[in-house]
Amino acid sequence: MSMVGTRVIRKEDPNLITGRGLFTDDVSIMGTTIMAFVRSTEAHADIVSVDLAEARALPGVLVVITVDDLETQELPGAFMRTVLAKDRVRFVGEPIAVVVAEDRYIAADAVELVQVTYRPLPLVITPVEALAVGAPLVQEALGTNVCFEVPWPQEQIDQVDRAFEAAPRQASTTFHSQRVHPVPMEPSAILADWGPDKLTVWASTQMPHGLRNCLSSFLGVPQHQCRVIQPDVGGGFGAKVQQYPELFLAPILSKRLGRPVKYVQTRTECFAIMCSGRDQHHEIDVAFDDDGHILGLRSLIHADLGAYPDLPNSFGMPTLTNWMSSGCYKIPAIVAGYKCVLTNKTPQSAYRGAGRPEASFLAERVVDLIADETGIDPAEVRLRNFIPTDEFPYKVPHAEVYYDSGNYPLSLHEALRLCDYENLKVERDRRNADASEKLMGIGFSTWVEIAAFGPRGALEGFGHIGSYESAQVKIQPDGTAIIATGASPHGQGTHTTLAMIAADELHMSIDNITVRSGDTDTTPQGVGTMGSRTAAIAGEATKQASIKVFQNACKIAAHMLEANPDDLECVDGLFQVKGVPSKTIPWSQVGWAGLSPTLLPDDIPAGCLESTVFAEPTGFTYPAGAYVCVVGIDRDTGHVEVEKFYSVDDCGTVINPLLAEGQVQGGIIQGIAQALFEEMVWDSAGQPLTTTLMDYLAPAASDVPSIIDGRTNTPTPHNSLGAKGIGESGTIGSTPAVVNAVVNALAQYGVKNIAMPISPQRVWRILNQAQGA
Amino acid sequence: MQREVTISVNGATRTDTVEPRLLLVHYLREQRRLTGTHIGCDTSNCGACTVLIDGLSAKSCTVLAVQADGHEVSTIEGLAGSDGSFHPVQEGFRQCHGLQCGYCTPGMIMASVGILADNPHPSESEIRMGLEGNICRCTGYQKIVEAVQWAAAHPQPQPAGQGG
Ligand code: FES
Ligand code: FES
User: Residues enclosing ligand 1, CB less than 6 A?
Assistant: First the structure.
């Protein structure tokens, strides 16, 4: 029986449920010291002086340094940033000095003893401020706060202008996809041990190989002497692909002290200095006709990248938004452009979805706007505009983006059936007319995203060595298998997923397969786990490597059975001539023979039961789906409750439905949280107001609903599994469904738009004004 | 200034010398080398550090080691049977995919053990309210709720399964 497609419980779990997981802070080496940062309390200021004397004199303190003590000062992978602040600070939290001490309590004491004096400078917190004439400059050397720009191409402008001139109707809107934090439950952590012959780094990272390559060139240590180990990682969500100062400072200070150096970020630091996501301001015009057909779209984005963009990810986020701004709709003319703006805030970068949640928000809000303007049901407007199922591969009009496959009406019809839309509408109208009931709203999101990053060239542009992912399948002498992959999972269940794929191709029990990842010395070069790429690409690599190994295994078994390899089959780990179960050779004998030359046929060398494949997909994949959100709104308090959430995902082939559900549910809750709860807030002096889990409302179990899951399956042609990827879908699709539902509930009060997060205050003000009127 | 404390952890009693300001979670992780109890915040909001003190669930980052003097602490490491059998809550998390990255998991499991000790058959909303102090960023909580329901329905220890 095939494993792929079944609900297999995870191989990862036994360690993690017994406290035997090994996260970076759990790794202990004798003599380990603790590193801590002195961080800026000013958002924009010249550093007048830094007095380290008292801190250095504290017993137990081993070293305290500033940027002046560093040979190489420029932070790799960051825009105009030094590893520690040099002369000037540009956001609250920016590291100024670093302390290493015998333990974390002494390190914290020493940080308190460092005296920094500042000369505050005027600052900018929003793109509007940053773009004002005469605005203070975040980087004076740049001469502007615009650090990167993709203007509207003239040809697209003309085309869209013509579409607008010919269109019977048009509408405009603006929105802000606010800054939200990934909040991995394990903040950043690193342990560096630079001994005489080797640097070993344990890091909470999403890409150990990329980090190894970067550390090696920054520190000038050859790669054979630079090992990065990714132990268990407590979530990443896109915020652990960046090159942070601590990743370089811990090795440097380990070398200097001749002792291991560990840094474990506090949650407060995590909010202040880990990259956070979104923060795009959108200006949208849409042209359409009386039947709700979309005829043209203009999109201009101002992306607020904070003080030091993460290169090139930060610049790439609005590119992805632009690419996906057509949503799953056939829009004949689109013009899309953006400006990346510097502000005195924490750097912005990827957060689960990375540019696509902003695009789905754009497309899904626009469709609802058209529904509102024309009075046509929002589900019907969607059905009228979907890219027809027979038009795949579909090229969007404004970019070299080719949707691989899709069946958008199928997903929406499934969602309508699942939620019983006709009855929901009746219930909504009844409740909204009855003042004793909560208000009710129904919101749709029929989203599409881009995944399986990527085809050749896609990630090279982001500084990666390739866009592939790797898998090495190696049969052990006892006939069991170890798979080593360059993918670097941190919660996705990839060990289970890859073992399932291999079990099918090797015709071996999954219990006899172990997957290893996250060690640059022992796994093949990899790219990393991000961009919903692992199942589709590492999965394909595992499949192809397993097929090769199995072919050789059949040759060996055939030799032992004195049969033709083509006549063999393998049933429950036993090789036999098809239909002749009386004589069998178990995997254990084949595994032994594979490494024992005396047992092998002449034309097969020892080691033949080992294969490494670097799989490259032939294109991006485009997972899609239809979500329906039902909200109830308390008429007195403005509190919004998600009463029901229906999800129909289409990620092509599902390898493990249990894990796919987990990815979707977790992602949807993150997306609901952006709509209703989460926002990073800075005051006008640039002080962050959301630096704890008390102020930043990452939801708890009691804040969120259960999801009612559905599924359609439209495979991708870009890998032999047909898998599109599902890691980010939930986050991408869910936010607009919630906002659309709230706007739907409040439509009777003339509400056409509402800012996120949709707090009770925001809703209460609307209701209160309406009642006052 | 140092203080002497005698604390039982998972049935093993030991006397240690600690600074009065040492948090229980750091005592467990660094002096007892029990790293299954995690730290996810510095404001007692996340619950990653949840343990049982004298059978009641508590956030070990809000307790000083000196306050645990003379008390019995249970951590995730003490939950499985000595024969390797999983506690029903552990098995529930595994069966229902109640964990992804596993960072919140020890705290979630200990908090769930606390909930079931009070209320062996909690409703979905009782479970959600009971886990209010524990944050999970991966699962969206649905499968954690199912895991606790699974444990409520299977109160006997579960033989150890095949591991990865
Ligand atoms: S570490 Fe104790 S509640 Fe977060
Ligand atoms: S499983 Fe990752 S935080 Fe809960």
Answer: B 39-41, 44-49, 59, 61
